[in-house]
Amino acid sequence: MRQIFPTLTVRENLVATAADRARRASPWTLERVHALFPRLAERATNLGANLSGGEQQMLAIGRALMTNPRLLILDEATEGLAPLVRVEIWRCLEALKDEGLAMIVVDKNIGALKRLADRHFVVEKGRVVWSGDSDALTAQPEVPVRRRNLRGVGLAPLRGPGGGGLRRTRWVSLRSTHPTGTPECPASSPTCRTSSRRTETGAGGSSPRR
Fold first, then answer.
1. Is the pTM of this model over 0.70?
2. What torsion, rounded to 10 degrees, do the Cα atoms 98, 99, 100, 104 define?
């Protein structure tokens, strides 16, 4: 269900948690969200439970934006969606980047992440095992090429210490609007997260988790 309210309409989902604590000059409103996701305007009176998976994901992102966050975190926002819907989601993320919104995006689509993010991080068991910008990632084709041979979500394969094997890792990309290249995220700042099903897998199989 992607953390939306199934018994509320699309409009009710969007306004339920709306806030503008920072008193922004151009806060996110229903009109702005509808401009970003026209399909939500068309489904305004539909219940959340009656939306498709792609429409639910758009609603989850739109609801997060309605809180006017300083940092938007998306975890596998395109997982399990139809190809055309994935294109729409990435188009919207690029539009948010152009507006200067800081984002952390976790996804398996490395090609899209390279176009979107300023920095990339590979996280294994809570530790960053590789980091760099899109140029550095392109210069190391081993990572994206080898991960095509794996099934699962959020994996970033790397060679093991002895040159063989794969590690179970998470691929994290970061878009920052701060000069240092790292988005500021103090505990007091409002952040929003849209979550979907995650799967970790190795050579021997997979185990889903929420």
1. no
2. -80
Q: What is the DSSP letter of 136?
A: H
Coil, helix or strand for 3?
coil
CA angle 37, 177, 109 (to 5 degrees): 55
Highest mean pLDDT among 2-6, 22-26, 31-35: 31-35
Where does the chain show beta strands of DSSP type E? 71-75, 102-106, 119-124, 127-132, 170-175, 191-194, 198-202, 205-209
Neighbours of 73 (CB within 10 A): 20
Written as one string, the DSSP assignment of 67-105 is: T--SEEEEESTTTT--HHHHHHHHHHHHHHHHTT-EEEE
Between the two ends of the chain, the Cα-to-Cα distance in Å is: 12
Give the tokens for residue 54: 């792609």
Residue 158 · residue 122 · CB < 8 Å: yes
Rounded Cα distance between 79 and 150, Å, is: 15
Residue 54: name the closest of 207, 201, 194, 191 by CA: 194
Output the six-digit token pair for 61. 């992102």
Name the token pair of 114: 């390279």
Give the separation between CA 172 and CA 192, rounded to whole angstroms. Answer: 16
Strand, helix or coil for residue 193:
strand
Tens digit of pLDDT for each residue in 78-125? 988 999 999 999 999 999 999 999 999 998 888 888 889 999 988 778
